[in-house]
Design goal:
The structure holds two protein chains of two kinds. Chain A is mainly alpha-helical. By secondary structure, chain B is an alpha+beta fold. Chain B has a single domain, classed as Winged helix-like DNA-binding domain superfamily/Winged helix DNA-binding domain (Arc Repressor Mutant, subunit A), CATH 1.10.10.10. Chain B has a three-stranded antiparallel beta sheet. In chain B, helix 1 packs antiparallel against helix 4 and helix 2 crosses helix 3. Classes of the chains: A mainly alpha, B alpha+beta.
């Protein structure tokens, strides 16, 4: 290819290999059909402007997912859905645990949640106090509301 | 409003329409769609759509030698593709008239 430099040819080869890997679950004929036009296309895209293919076209995995969706094929094992969401939840749980332990260390307990459990009677007290406050407000509002009042500025 | 969501439903029709004026290879078709105003249309969406339309029997393909590099695969509408484009156009016109009327009404009521 005379318009393409050596590095961008390597880049095209790499991008194609990543696409192929992301479509590995498809029957070979289907996968080859889906990728058939892309060597020329990617070479043309790589040659027309500076910047990496991933910068301009997005990561190969996302590109492969878009190809599948537009071709009416089912999402691949790595696209959205079960496993990816599962691992995101796992990461969140792990993060929460680290924060829990980190905060706990600062206040002198193994975990911050253990300290919060010790405070449970205080939470009950606070809740009771708030409930009483609400009840009193409601009572005050209704009993006063029943009595006709004349306010300044009104008739 | 996110036009990429709207585009998903009409990309088949847009690709068929882009081929009405003449055969083209993938990047040609992508450029035609973009210059027609569908700036958000993604590469991969166009290639995936071409693959599906080809498998559905609406397109034929042939290879053309290119000066710059390897052969390019050109896509062309066949009779079934033209028929599909005509049908799709009717559905689209009815749908867009319905939406226009609905949006006009709600505009007047507001």
């Amino acid at each position: 290819m005379n318009t393409t430099t050596g590095t961008s040819t390597d880049e095209v080869t790499r991008y194609l290999a990543d696409l192929r890997a992301a479509l590995a679950d498809l029957p070979p004929g289907e996968r080859d059909g889906l990728l058939e036009d892309l060597p020329e296309h990617l070479a043309e895209v790589a040659a027309e402007a500076p910047g990496s293919l991933a910068d301009r076209l997005g990561p190969p995995a996302a590109y492969a997912a878009e190809l599948r969706a537009a071709a009416g094929l089912r999402p691949g094992p790595a696209d959205g859905g079960g496993p990816a969401v599962g691992s995101a939840v796992q990461r969140l749980v792990a993060l929460a645990d680290r924060v829990d332990r980190g905060t706990g260390r600062v206040i002198g307990y193994p975990k911050a949640t253990e300290f919060l459990v010790l405070l449970r009677p205080a939470w009950w007290l606070l809740r009771g106090y708030l409930a009483a406050l609400l009840l009193l407000r409601w009572y005050a509002a209704t009993s006063l509301g029943l009595v006709p009042r004349t306010l300044p500025g009104r008739q | 409003m996110d036009t990429t969501q709207l585009l998903k439903g009409v990309l088949d029709l847009a690709v068929l329409a882009a081929l009405r004026g003449g055969d083209g290879y993938g990047y040609d078709i992508l450029r035609r769609l973009r210059s027609a105003g569908l700036a958000e249309v993604g590469d991969a969406s166009v290639y995936g759509t071409l693959r599906r339309l080809f498998q559905a029997g609406y397109l034929t393909t042939y290879l053309v030698a290119s000066d710059e590099g390897p052969h390019r695969k050109y896509y062309a509408l066949n009779a079934a593709g033209r028929e599909q484009l005509g049908q799709g156009r009717k559905v689209w016109c009815a749908f867009s008239a319905t939406m226009d009327a609905l949006l006009e009404d709600s505009g007047a009521a507001a």
